[in-house]
Amino acid sequence: MALVLSLGITVVLAVSAVTVISSATSNTREASTHVARNAVEELALAGINDAAALLSLPSKNALNPSIFCLTLQTPPCSQTVSLGGGTVTFSGYLTGTTWTITSTATLPNKNGMNTGNLTKTMTAQIPVIATLTQPLNNPAWNYVYSTHPVTPGVCDMTIQQSVVVASPLIVNGNLCLQNTATIVSGPLDVRGSLTLSQAQNTVGTALTKISDAHIAGGCKYANNAFHLPCQGGLADNVWANVLDSTPSPITPPVVYWDSWYLNASPGPYYPCTTTSGTPPTFDNVVALPTAADAAKLAYRNDSAGTFNLTPASSYTCQTAGGELSWNAATKTLTVGGTIFIDGSVYVNNGAINTYNGQATLYASGSVLLKNSTLCAQLNVAKTACDTVNWNPNSRLLCIVSNGNGSLAPDAQVSSGDSVQLTSAYFQGAVFATNDVEIQTTSTIDGPIVGSNVKLGQSVNTSFPTISTVPAGMPSNPTVYAQPLAPTNYSG
Prior knowledge:
By secondary structure, the protein is mainly beta. Strand 20 and strand 21 (about 320-325) form a beta hairpin.
């Protein structure tokens, strides 16, 4: 009887042990599965964060619909990475200025039953804000700046006729004043020498001195002796509150031609998404959107012809990152972002035109303004530009030209010129790889940078201080668009 009782107890204990072990094993499996489910969810979230990180890279344009594609892939494209013992695949598609990101994570389910992998799919949205303006990066954009270096015995920049320079001026080379040209405002920085041909040529006056003059290469006034350093006053006809031989270290702006050819919007690789009329041809032939950058840049060859910015008919070109539109009835140009035309442009409608917005307009070729006015701010009578009340920090068009006037279509301007004004008035900023020629009663109100800035005939230059500039302004960082934090998660 004791044996039977002992055997029964043993059986009961054995059953209890099996039950406990089975229960423990089941709990362990459930715990393992729960941990794995949390891990795969975290992995899917990491995929969305990886996509956001890629959009945020300074070298990437977050408004590029092919940003997740490898070379020559067709969007929508995905990327797969190994992470946390599993894999995650993320992809996205761009609608307007919002990315919809999908992330699918796969993780082995190591619960001891070989039940396969756990997967988790999540989606989120990432809004993108196009970068349209930036703080001024290079103080050169508050000057008229002649970049040609010193040529011994030669005038690298000549100001003549009845030109009155009322804006800050930097001359990398030798500066010569002829006829009745005068400089009435500072600062004046000359890294070569200053030559004043006659008594009518002055830098300031005894009664109204300019703020400061920094002339490295000495002064020569009429028949007086050459002075190194400049002596100022009657000896050189230079009158400044501060006169020394140490020009400021301000460097010329740097142009990122390749970056903006690839990323300007509108431009060759970011065509109009909203269009009407006949907007410009940004380039006549381009590579595939997902081609390598080198293949795309092979088409930056000034081949788009010559485009009339202000034709008789209206046109509209809008993208997620910018705009170039023309209202022929109101004679108004609307601009935004960075625009790139792989050719030449001109304004020659004989009218008083205005523009709205802030933008940088790149032209691989030349730029001509003739018999026309293009203002940011009109006077009350709407007959001319109003520089006194113009705020360039909210309304500024910067023209950047790489032409030289030697071959068609660049030949709309004189040989050696990138930008030319003839009987024209422009209110804005100008950068020229070669010369800027302002002739025949023309005026530019705004900063000018060129190899040689030819302020010919009757010109009066002045403009307000600039602190905020449009994206794409030479020397400013190439920032295209800013993605925000992911939102609207689901899954």
